[in-house]
Design goal:
By secondary structure, the protein is of the alpha/beta class. Strand 4, helix 4 and strand 5 form a beta-alpha-beta unit. The chain has a single domain, classed as 2-Layer Sandwich (Nucleotidyltransferase, domain 5). The radius of gyration is 21 Å and the shape is extended. The termini are far apart. It has a five-stranded mixed β-sheet. InterPro entries: DUF659 (IPR007021), RNaseH-like_sf (IPR012337). It holds the Pfam family DUF659.
């Protein structure tokens, strides 16, 4: 910013950032969201879930929605106490489908862990119009890990 406006540039105050600037940004994001939701209802969408562990050893699940309009970050949840429980994973996925609108969701993509497999299959039983699909990259990673354990590759 300084390079663009010169050394006299005055950045916004913390008060400006947390009041009118934040309000304008929220309004802009909400307008973008309307366009994405319209696309979801017209063409359908995919819900994607990705988990990772942060620096404090918390398991964070990110939920994203992908459509022809692009990928939209929906939310993150701390799943540290629930990640291994298929029933609770089913609950997370079911709630996300409700939030996006079951009529809009074509498929759900998750990793291939047993809790996700179980939750995905159960979700398809209750919501017969959508598909659960394991992430291809995660499947390939698991296959390569198994191959690397073969005696022929031991050093």
């Amino acid at each position: 910013m300084v390079a663009k406006y010169g050394p006299g540039f005055q950045p916004p105050s913390s008060h400006e950032l947390r009041t009118w600037i934040l309000k304008e940004e929220v309004e802009d994001v909400q307008k973008l969201m309307v366009a994405h939701k319209k696309d979801w209802s017209h063409y359908g969408c995919t819900i994607m879930s990705d988990g990772w562990t942060d620096g404090k050893s918390r398991v964070i699940l990110n939920f994203l929605v992908n459509s022809s309009k692009g990928t939209w970050f929906l939310k993150s949840v701390d799943a540290s106490d629930t990640i291994k429980n298929g029933e609770l994973m089913l609950n997370y996925l079911d709630n996300i489908v409700e939030e996006v609108g079951e009529e809009n969701v074509v498929q759900i993509v998750t990793d291939n862990a047993s809790n996700y497999k179980w939750a995905g299959k159960e979700l398809m039983k209750h919501r017969s119009k959508l598909w659960w699909t394991p992430c291809a990259a995660h499947c390939i990673d698991l296959m390569l890990e198994d191959i690397s354990k073969m005696k022929v590759f031991e050093s």
